[in-house]
């Protein structure tokens, strides 16, 4: 499509009519009029002066073909329509129109505003790389290429959003990732007809298989090494511009309890830490409901000495156990939310001091017992052991309906809640793959990627859950060999 017969510069200006920072530099060079349009707040003025204006003045042949070939700028694009030029100008490019030409030229002299590389905030590690992704998709791709130097690494560019277009990159290892998974991701992205997507977490919700479940179906990470590890296992990553987190898919329920630190530690320590993590998570869900069920219906299972202690502690409490438990759980959630919203130093102090003061005051006032304070505190600690923030939030929410079931039917109510939870998890999928894999469908070979941690020589094949094209990582027989230097 060619430019319209109307004045080309005026056409572009109409597209940007509500941008008071739109500038147009008109220069005369070799008998031709050259118009350069840009938004002054988005460009690098040194590049404009040195690499565009000065270069054009020095040219003997001022033509679009000559400038496109010789301009000392990395990114140059020939624009066919005024709308296309306006789109590039909004992104911080400068657009050049030469009198008599049928096309325009867009050059990238954008001044990117981005923060420097920092340590990960939500996924802190003791061992391993500490660097995290940033809000710039170009920087994130650069970090990924430093971590994955495989020549088969693919980074496909897509654009989503009709009113506020956003760049998205789908990344995977070409000869490892399953072709069906790749096509499913591309299809879901291309079928999104939405005004804007503000963050990768929003995009993950738009792409997920089940919108009404409480469980996250895609993993969000800000760690480059975790993404690299997932790509090498046959998974797919999705970058979103202006977002510091990356979507990893497909994922399983057990992926949210894995930490890259499990790889860096020795396998014996990783087994212990993973077991502690799983125990803490299940304790976070069931400790408070068990307290409510036992105190309400099954107090005969408590040893006599402990029963006397609990009875003495609850002697001044006017509420039934379920109200007492819900009150304390709600108070813990208030402290957690307040601590997250306040500045870091103030939030930490408020969470610690507020918890101690409110807990002691609640016991002294007779609102709750000392035993329940301990149980709720352990439940709160257990929820923090989940490496994924999304799964940690899910676990905290799950406690409340199970507490209510325990208050209605005791241990039977807890079993009903567990059964409903398992049935729900069995129905879930992530990118069309079973959410509870490798437990259901059962794959013994993949259990080492989910529940346990073995020495590295046993990881000769990639998990079958991801359906990798190339399942072999290395030769198991070669890994078992041991040779001295003189052999």
UniProtKB/TrEMBL annotation:
Any Pfam family matching the protein: GerA
GO cellular component term, pick one: membrane
Chain segments annotated as transmembrane: 275-297, 356-382, 402-426
InterPro entries the record matches: Spore_Ger, UPF0353/GerABKA_families
Origin: domain of life: Bacteria
Gene Ontology terms: biological process: spore germination
Stored PANTHER family: LEUCINE ZIPPER PROTEIN 4, SPORE GERMINATION PROTEIN
Protein name per UniProt: GerA spore germination protein
Organism of provenance: Anoxybacillus pushchinoensis
Lineage: Bacteria, Bacillati, Bacillota, Bacilli, Bacillales
